[in-house]
Design goal:
With 660 residues, this protein is of the alpha+beta class. Among the domains are: 136-235, Alpha-Beta Plaits (2-Layer Sandwich); 337-636, no CATH class. 61% of the residues lie in helices and 11% in strands. It has a 4-stranded antiparallel β-sheet, with helices on one face. A 4-stranded antiparallel β-sheet has the order 7-8-6-9. It has a two-stranded antiparallel ribbon with strand order 1-13. α13 (357-372) packs across α15 (397-416) and α19 packs antiparallel against α21 (520-529). The longest helix is centred in the C-terminal third of the chain and has 39 residues, at 595-633. The protein is extended and about 120 Å long.
Length: 660
């Protein structure tokens, strides 16, 4: 329930052991390594340079592997559908992993795949060209004159062209006026294939006329023979090309049987590249590599044990510089850990701030539940999360968080009587007494109760944010900030609330009078001391502005009315779906449709309608609850912008390695 304490370390190792040490560090994934630009030792000793050049050979091999994997994926017999999307990575054991990595024959598969891919691309291009040529020749199939004889003669020029069918008669007349002749060969797709013979002296005029008629010139060069012969020739070539293409596809499918091995190799070399980059960008001397970085304090003994196994390597703790940015990691108990998703999505806190996860968790779960306020929808989401938790690979925090929020939704839905809207009243009236026993209030019948509950919860969270900041400043021994920036607001805002309650007759007038006077003291403190830097006039001006900003707290509290709005909209739409489903049965019955069909239609409307309402409402509940945390709660005590702790570790894109 706090930000993890970090220790800065420096490791010095002989070049001969640097690669092995980094591999051990990467295997445990506990130490973040800084490059030469980030390391403090480089700033103290600028003569230290990076150890070596970038590992271009590994980068080149990874590029080839990536392209090969993408090519063979289309030919692999991999499972598809929802389950493959949820679990896209293949689980293998360490022995299979090591065996594959050591098999040098796999590199030959890359070369074979590249050759096959290049040949498929060539054959595809050739096939497309042949098909285009056949399409060009098709309208001229009845032309008996060899195509090489169509061209320029001594006194005339012969043109082959495609003209729009609707332009033929007009063009024939105009060509006749120019002393040219036109012979139609065939009509196809609103185009007319025709041969035009023109005297050379009139060629430019004829070409101008044809351009105005939107003609398409046709060239048969360098082909020879009749069109029918050319079509037969190109058809035979196309058939042969497609046979070769089929053989290449079959060869690619055989190569795709090695896809998993290539994926293992890709992940292996990707991790190797990370190690090499860490080594090559670290400060170094002629014979040593200096690894400066960060480790969690609790993991320092473990790091000591790793380094001690290397004779030519040493480890020491060093103090970070005053202005150095310390990386941040947060750790929480199991019940709170899923809500780290919200914190990480916002951005890590600064190393000196508070981890907000434990504080936002109960509010987020409750607010999400109030936005849905339907026990039936809560049950459905819980069932979905149980399924996803079993099937999904990787980080499951989001699913755990949604499962917890949905469990709370089940409770709030029961308390507000929402079971797929009013499905109990509409379809199962026998359960109405049980529903009413569990109910606290019905939001649609008593919306002001929901209104007041939203405001109270919003006010509570805002006060919690101020209280968190107040306690944190006290722990940091920043007593002036604690008093002037948080305690004054806590006292003034609560005094105003109590004063307002007394005016409304909820509390005795004497209590209201006392707190009304009490509110003046923190108001004066805010005016005088909320701005403590700069010239006097500026401090007073900002103090006045800060005091006026008390009105913004009212806006913050009113923002929480979205809880009521979304909750009632969800319930209203669910009720509408139930009504529509029943009306659909009546409408179909009035047209003489059998009752069974009407019931089926009602069930389909209920399933489709509630599924759509659940999806939209759950999305709205998540987004708006998220907004309340980020816009109303976090600014009261959190600045954010911390740098995430990123240890050197093994990452896998395609596989999961199961330890034996």
């Amino acid at each position: 329930m706090a930000i993890t304490q970090m220790a800065k370390v420096i490791l010095v190792t002989h070049r001969s052991q640097a690669a092995e040490l980094l591999e051990a560090l990467q295997h445990d994934g506990i130490c973040q390594i800084l490059n030469a630009q980030q390391a403090a030792v480089t700033k103290d000793m600028p003569e230290l340079a990076a150890a070596a050049e970038r590992p271009k050979d590994i980068e080149y091999l990874l590029g080839r592997l990536e392209k090969t994997i993408e090519f063979l994926k289309d030919y692999a017999l991999a499972p598809k559908g929802l389950l493959s999307a949820l679990a896209p990575r293949t689980v293998i054991d360490e022995s299979s992993y090591n065996k594959t990595v050591e098999d040098r024959q796999i590199l030959k598969i890359i070369e074979q795949s590249e050759q096959t891919k290049a040949e498929i691309e060539r054959l595809n291009s050739e096939s497309e060209n042949l098909q285009a040529t056949l399409a060009q020749l098709a309208p001229w199939q009845s032309l008996e004159t060899p195509v090489q004889e169509i061209g320029r003669l001594n006194r005339t020029t012969t043109l082959a062209a495609l003209l729009p069918s609707q332009q033929i008669e007009k063009v024939q007349q105009q060509l006749a006026d120019l002393g040219a002749a036109i012979e139609t060969v065939a009509f196809s797709d609103n185009k007319c294939a025709c041969i035009i013979v023109v005297i050379n002296e009139n060629l430019s005029d004829v070409q101008k006329l044809l351009r105005s008629a939107e003609f398409e010139p046709v060239s048969f060069e360098p082909m020879t023979g009749t069109v029918a012969e050319l079509i037969d020739e190109h058809t035979a070539r196309l058939s042969e090309t497609q046979k070769k293409l089929q053989l290449m596809h079959e060869q690619a499918a055989r190569l795709a049987e090695n896809l998993l091995k290539l994926q293992i190799l890709y992940d292996h070399y990707a991790n190797l590249l990370n190690r090499e980059q860490a080594k090559d960008t670290a400060p170094a001397t002629e014979s040593t590599v200096i690894l400066e970085g960060w480790v969690k304090q609790k993991d320092y003994p473990r790091l000591e044990k790793i380094v001690s196994s290397f004779e030519a390597s040493t480890l020491a703790r060093i103090e970070p510089a005053e202005d150095e940015e310390i990386p941040v990691e947060i750790e929480n108990k199991n019940a709170i850990k899923p809500f780290e998703v919200i914190t990480r999505l916002y951005g890590m806190p600064q190393h000196f701030e508070v981890d907000p996860t434990a504080f936002l968790a109960p509010f987020f779960a409750l607010f999400f539940a109030l936005c849905l306020t339907d026990a039936g929808y809560g049950l459905v989401i819980v069932a979905m999360m149980v399924f996803f938790l079993k099937k999904v690979q990787g980080d499951k925090k989001l699913m755990w968080m949604l499962g917890i929020c949905s469990a709370v939704t089940l409770i709030t839905g029961a308390l507000t009587g929402g079971w797929f809207g009013d499905a109990v009243q509409q379809f199962v009236p026998a359960l109405k007494p049980l529903r009413e026993k569990m109910m606290w209030f019905d939001p649609l019948e008593n919306p002001m109760m929901f209104f007041g509950l939203s405001l109270v919860l919003g006010y509570t969270q805002i006060m919690a944010g101020l209280l968190i900041a107040f306690i944190h400043n006290l722990k940091q021994k920043d007593y002036i900030a604690a008093v002037c920036d948080q305690l004054t607001w806590l006292v003034m805002l609560n005094s105003i609330v109590i004063f307002t309650a007394a005016k409304a007759g909820v509390l005795p007038p004497q209590v209201g009078k006392f707190f009304g006077i009490l509110a003046l003291i923190p108001a004066a403190a805010i005016f005088l001391f909320s701005q403590r830097e700069g010239p006097l006039v500026g401090r007073i001006g900002m103090g006045l502005y800060n005091l006026f900003s008390a009105i913004f707290y009212l806006g913050d509290v009113l923002s929480y009315l979205r809880l009521m709005a979304l909750g009632m909209v969800t319930a209203g739409i669910a009720m509408a779906i139930n009504v529509i489903s029943k009306v659909a049965v009546d409408i179909l019955s009035s047209f003489g449709v059998p009752k069974v069909i009407g019931i089926v239609a009602m069930i389909l409307i209920l399933i489709g309608g509630h599924a759509a309402n659940l999806g939209l409402s759950a999305l709205g509940a998540f987004v708006h609850t998220l907004r309340l945390q980020y816009a109303e709660f976090f600014p009261k005590f959190l600045v954010g912008g911390g740098k995430l702790f990123q240890p050197l570790s093994k990452n896998y894109k395609h596989i999961y390695v199961k330890k034996i």
